[in-house]
Fold:
Amino acid sequence: MSESESSSTEQAQLGVLRDNIDALDLQIAELINQRAGLAQQVAQVKHQFAQPGEEVVYYRPEREAQVLRRIMEQNKGPLHDEELARLFRELMSACLALEKPTSVAYLGPEGTFTEQAALKHFGHSAMTRSMPAIGDVFREVEAGVVQYGVVPVENSTEGVVNHTLDNFMTSGLKICGEVELRIHQNLLISDVTKLDGITRIYSHSQSLAQCRQWLDTHYPLAERVAVNSNAEAARRIKGEWHSAAIAGELAAQQYGLTMLSEKIEDQPDNSTRFLIIGAEAVPASGDDKTSIMVAMKNEPGALHSLLQPFEEFGVDLTRVETRPSKTGVWSYVFFIDFTGHVEQESVKQALAKVHGCASDLKILGSYPKAVL
Structure:
């Protein structure tokens, strides 16, 4: 076959494939709009049957989790589950915005990993608002300024975020969901940075800790300056020729920076877990977690009394943390996560027994496990 004949055959085959893609694109667009129309009908039904003065709830975390799980279970590729889930999350976000845009506060400023977690969970059609502190996120949700908040709770390398746990001690908000975000740290520079003159590196204290070994190897003499957020670090280096920042890809995009070195975290499986907080309890989704806060009486065997009921009724504990109580010296509060929903009989029995030996028991929320 001559070169011209080969080129002609190639163009003919590509033409057929592109025609098929164009036809499928039209079908996809039509189906997306059909789905959006059904979402609008859902909103109409909710309005129709809402009681006078009752606030209509549009966002249903358990329903979204069920949809994503079903899509991934039936996924035959070639797209990976995570990519397919991301696409459907955005589709649900756009459809939900037709009913009522979801308003979300997150620990800011813009460009933080918490904003990335908020967008991963709620999609880009949500209305997001950055807040300067974790306590401010709680207050915005409590005041009804926004419907939901996103706050970090633990990192796989550096452990629990104490400010988040402390806010639950005084807040009446519920945990409505969780997000697990793979954390990639990058060394960012600006257009004025002199590569051979970097003597200062800005980042959040946890990010600096997550990259300690890498920094020891590549910038052992550089001053490490902890700031309130990685986004603040990214902002600072815009006008400093001798500085760099450690932050995520979103911060690089937000502030027009270059990623000089990528994925510099010391642990390759570095990830952070975030909590979604809101005012409403979440029904069971079929694969859930529950978080509680327990204050125990100061007496011998108190810890055993706390943990034993979970073993007795077959409830799997996934995390136990302690924090100093704000009500007494040398008094502690336990934060416990476990598999299951408060509507399950085994969970009810375990919590009833814990309640009998605790001085205080607060259910922070039952919510769907993170979907990827």
Q: What stands out?
A: The CA atoms of residues 17 and 52 lie 55 Å apart. The longest strand covers residues 358-368.
